[in-house]
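Archive transcription. Copying these from loose printouts into the bound notebook so they stop getting lost. Printout 1 of 2:
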Amino acid sequence: MKILLVDDDQLVLNGLRRALFSANCSVITANSGKEALEKLAYEECDLIISDMMMPQMDGSQLLEEVSQKYPWIIRASLSGYADPQMTVRGGFYAHQAFMKPCDTSMLKAEIQRISNMLERFPDRLIQNAIGTITSLPVTLDLYQKVKVMLEDEQSSIQDLADVIQNDPAICAKLIQIANNAIFRGKSEINSVEGALNRPGTQIVVNIVAMLELYVGDKHKPSKALENLRQHSLIVANLTAKLAPQGESNTGFLIGVLHQIGEFVRTLILPELMKKYLTSGGEKHDFRHLEEHLFNTNSEQLGAYLLHLWAFPSPIIESVLNQNNEQLVLEQPYSFTTALYIAKKIANGETVNVELVDKFELTETLAQL
């Protein structure tokens, strides 16, 4: 794995290089955004970590350009402060973020996680396509509601959470940025309420301002995406009720995001997806095409994006394994179990009797 470190402070670069000496990776450095782009023109890299505050070309500008020219490269920001506007802008072009001074053990662990992710999803076509995504399509009416609520001093965090959690795109971007090292502390954030409480409403204001770029894209099959969103909410409510005890908020979020791979497909295959979603065709017809083009499926596309955005593992694993009945039967009760059952109920399908008996769910299912 090759890493490009970018910082105008040579001492910082030297320190990071020493910290990564034993991390089983190759490291190159650059002292400016211009030098970084020059090196990327002939150096093959897997990860770029850039300081945010540099003269001439700052970190967010560099990472934006890298996202356009080299979308398969995983992008991370390095920052020593928590300016809301810069943090959010960086969050749209950086997949992940690190704080200065950098916790070397956390940095090494994250690099190992990225290396594992690339091994798990090695297809360069997928990396290239998903690497271009900075946000998913946002629902216009919900976006407008959030804007109004942010301007209303009477709106509470819970009021705001109740609206935001209805839109997968806003949820995904909020959770990604809230899990930024600047905000998350030592614990991962895996609910909308937690994401709003940790960074605060000013961060949400900046996120919503950036999301305006993704509202009402006329090239996306908006009616079909609205149908996906509505179905996700049905599944989310069921998953919340079926989630492990005390984890209903995380269960709801997993339900909202479980079809995120479908949203990804609309961005990387817009014309094919538009025809598919408006044709009323059978799911398996498109799955054959999808697997032919990407050697993967919707769950894997969604899981790769969530991996890339450093989402908590339970959310990623639930999205990835939501249709894996054998795994659900073999493993202890989990969010994946809850999501699998919720989908069956939402689709009007019969839940596997063996599953019901194993987890003693007869009474629980009767109350749904």
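Printout 2 of 2:
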Amino acid sequence: MSPALFAPQAKRDLIEAASWIAKDNPAAARALRDSLADAARRLGRYPDLGAPRPDLAGPDIRFLVLSGFPYVVVYDAMRRPPMILRVLHGGRDIPSLMGNG
């Protein structure tokens, strides 16, 4: 299976997060990118891995907590390969960022 693809906004989210982390810890920024690449591979193979959140998005959109980091991967599980739409810090106002706030 092909890994999940990254929407332009998800790429911007990742660059922003990695740049912020790299200011204090370049190794942690690289680990974030590696963890997200691993998540993309897993989502390509198991698109239903994440949890649906009907309070935040429609039935095709799922949410996966990124292993080892306080980030949530928001992706379209119905696309093949899945499409990562956003990479959001869990401390942010996710409902507002998803248009539900």
